[in-house]
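Chain and backbone:
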Amino acid sequence: MTLSIRTVAPEALYDLRRLVLRENDPAVDVSDPRDHDGDARHFAGFLDDQLVVCGSIYASVSPLHETVPAHQLRYLATHFDVQGLGYGAALLDRLEQAAWHDGAREIWANGRDTALAFYRRQGWQLVPGSEHLSPYTGLPHTVIWKSLNTTT
């Protein structure tokens, strides 16, 4: 099957965000206060009509280079049934392209430590000394980033 990636309303992503990133806890809020900001972008990847991967970007000040136009990546999630098949990488690439198109020259995130190898394969870098526990999940995270200067 071919992955179809398109922009969607943020609410379309909440179930997958909750399932993959919040242990499917129905009591957990998976919205971001910036979800409806004019510069927020939300992408979903579908196999036929099934949502299998999602992610969002928000215009943000980079914690590394405050003067570089940047976007923050949040809620990158791939359904458990299709992890490891390249769908997350494809969606991440699309998010990076959208950030570049919107004027960002850097993208950053608080990456789950269990996903750092994935991000590094996609060209992201870790910020040494930025390790922390997420206030949302209590899980170990590290600040990660990527220069978008070579993205077209």
Summary: Residues 63 and 122 are 20 Å apart (CA to CA). Residues 3-147 form a domain with the Aminopeptidase fold (CATH 3.40.630.30).
